[in-house]
Amino acid sequence: MLVVQKYGGTSVGDLERIKNVARRIAKYRDEGHDVVVVVSAMAGETDRLLKLAYDLVEEPSPRELDMLVATGEQVSSALLAMALNAMGYPAKALLAFQIPIKTDELFGKARIRDIATKRLKEELAKGQVLIVAGFQGITDEGDITTLGRGGSDTTAVAIAAALGADVCEIFTDVDGVYTADPRIVPKARKIAKISYEEMLELASMGAKVLEIRSVEFAKIYRVPVHVRSSFSYEPGTMVVEEDESMEKVLVSGIAYNRNEARISLYGVPDKPGIASRIFGPIAEAGIVVDMIIQTGRPDGKADMTFTVPKTDYKATLKLVNELAPEIGIEKIEGDEDIAKVSIVGAGMRAHPGVAAKMFQVLADHGINIHMISTSEIKISCVIDEKYTELAVRALHEAFGLDRAPEEETS
Amino acid sequence: MLVVQKYGGTSVGDLERIKNVARRIAKYRDEGHDVVVVVSAMAGETDRLLKLAYDLVEEPSPRELDMLVATGEQVSSALLAMALNAMGYPAKALLAFQIPIKTDELFGKARIRDIATKRLKEELAKGQVLIVAGFQGITDEGDITTLGRGGSDTTAVAIAAALGADVCEIFTDVDGVYTADPRIVPKARKIAKISYEEMLELASMGAKVLEIRSVEFAKIYRVPVHVRSSFSYEPGTMVVEEDESMEKVLVSGIAYNRNEARISLYGVPDKPGIASRIFGPIAEAGIVVDMIIQTGRPDGKADMTFTVPKTDYKATLKLVNELAPEIGIEKIEGDEDIAKVSIVGAGMRAHPGVAAKMFQVLADHGINIHMISTSEIKISCVIDEKYTELAVRALHEAFGLDRAPEEETS
């Protein structure tokens, strides 16, 4: 079996943990598997490097910033390969330029274009364990790029796809994907199997187990991903293609996000092109708008509500206030104290009435809904932030997630 | 003018100092010069990385060790380029693989084979300041190598040679090469100009200002090297080809070395092949022998004395004691408390009697000489360690180094 494994920063956070990871890899070798390992920087290292740069200058040049932070993974991959070699398991650390992992030139958030498999395959055939520095790539000109936060997940999935690996194991400090945040819902359970689509929805809601681009990659190339803990040998959560068993489960998980703020524009002239005149300047300012809702009014005008990251709230308010006179917006209002609560499940497609049930549950607990948005397998409601925990717990119970799924009890 | 500059670890030891170096480089740009800069790792960083490796495993795999420590220069070169860019001076950090700087495959002490100048010249033509990560190279297979301690000096001189630079400036924390160690000889003076050969002899004696291989490189490719302080704008010491003015100076400097130990073998059979039977096993153990002296005895046997680094003293003693019965050595003796004191000067060639004067000076101070070795421009004497300071000061005065040279007073 060809296994691609990824170990996060906490898993290689100190020398003792690096040795633990080496022992874990050795076990796979003893079982006869070929192993390619992708590592993140040791916990805290990327932040230390970023601090160096931003303490030095206000705006570090992007090319050099990537060259700087890429050293974090260079260090951890070299150390892990050393640990394996010392244990008698031949291992080679490989940097992006040595494979190469080609990306575009968007420093700080580069996208992988191509991974050459020749050297990887040759080294594997020689019985080497390959330790690949995650998070980094190389442009056609030979400049070092980084893939953005969580990029090591993407490196791992992309390598698994390129090599046609049997599985891509993402080792992290949690032991899988849960039906809800266990800090909020004590009865939350680990999900044994989840579809790429569901995982995408959960990841986009801020469930930090998997970087969203890595899930997209896995979905496109159909890479089975196993999210599991580096501190135990228990199985975690398999992220795979949707199958029949998944459709039986109405709701797979409850997610929430407290990092957004709401802005409402009242009395917007309801004519063609108005939305782009509002959201064009916001996009140009680099602000990512999440939910957008527009409703007509009897007077021919429209009301428009949308959410932006809390960190961009003030800048967005300033922008729309500047636009207001020109466009003819009557009134602008905003609210930072909101939360988005979502239910996610592949089974929704086949079962009507899930949305109605969600609204009823929230109403039963006296929780007012400010915004609603839906996708095929997700329903999100924006509510007052103070009700977040209550809403998540109530939905978790109402959709039967407090108890083990039928397949497991029968 | 095309200037290659090298800044050592102390010169880029913290962010404030990196900014200082950036300002210094900016000054050269303002004067219209093209500048290629070679940087070492920030002071302490290489040791920190080595400690990580040796805390992890007893014997780190050499390939991965080089990959690990090479990050030190990657960090400092990226930071320095950022500082320059922020000041409005376009700068690019370049790693060995990006140039490339090709070396052999001797990890940890690789030798530079070739430096491609195409990219360097193109970037210089675009008005870029180039910040090259020192100390590192790349093999034909794309593995990262390091050149060994002090390797950044070699990188700088090699790049200066490859580009045909007008001067290679080595910025360090001392302001030049001195006639003797100023900590021992308060009257020691900075030498304005010194020949490659003299510098080689001084460097091999442990004068830490310039790495010896960089001087060899400079000599072969006739690169004018300027050793100077990164904390002032005062001129330092020019290391150049020997010229007439240098021959007038009898002795340029006094050096000493307390890091060696002496081993004497008495009654060694005086027959062909005996030296290789003794020194072969020592070389195989990786021990570098410095001075070797052999003298015949009336009884047809020989006495042999040699010096090794103090750190290898015990291992060498053990080795020769094991060889003794087989070879027929009568007696073995050793002494760790020795020092080597040397006088160096291109003028010696033209002036007989320098050696005699040195022996006389030592005798006048009651200092016994255990070993003598000479080269064209150097005379070294091994004495008891406790006399080191006395010997250096006495020689410094006797050869007229306490006062400024004639050229400067006239």
UniProtKB/TrEMBL annotation, chains A, B:
Record-listed E.C. numbers: 2.7.2.4
This protein's UniProt keywords: Amino-acid biosynthesis, ATP-binding, Kinase, Lysine biosynthesis, Nucleotide-binding, Transferase
A GO-annotated cellular component: cytosol
GO biological process: homoserine biosynthetic process; lysine biosynthetic process via diaminopimelate; threonine biosynthetic process
One GO molecular-function entry: aspartate kinase activity
Pfam families recorded: AA_kinase, ACT, ACT_9
Positions of the ACT domain: 263-346
Functional pathway: Amino-acid biosynthesis; L-lysine biosynthesis via DAP pathway; (S)-tetrahydrodipicolinate from L-aspartate: step 1/4; Amino-acid biosynthesis; L-threonine biosynthesis; L-threonine from L-aspartate: step 1/5; Amino-acid biosynthesis; L-methionine biosynthesis via de novo pathway; L-homoserine from L-aspartate: step 1/3
Domain of life: Bacteria
Family: Belongs to the aspartokinase family.
Name the UniProt record assigns to this protein: Aspartokinase
Lineage: Bacteria, Pseudomonadati, Thermodesulfobacteriota, Thermodesulfobacteria, Thermodesulfobacteriales
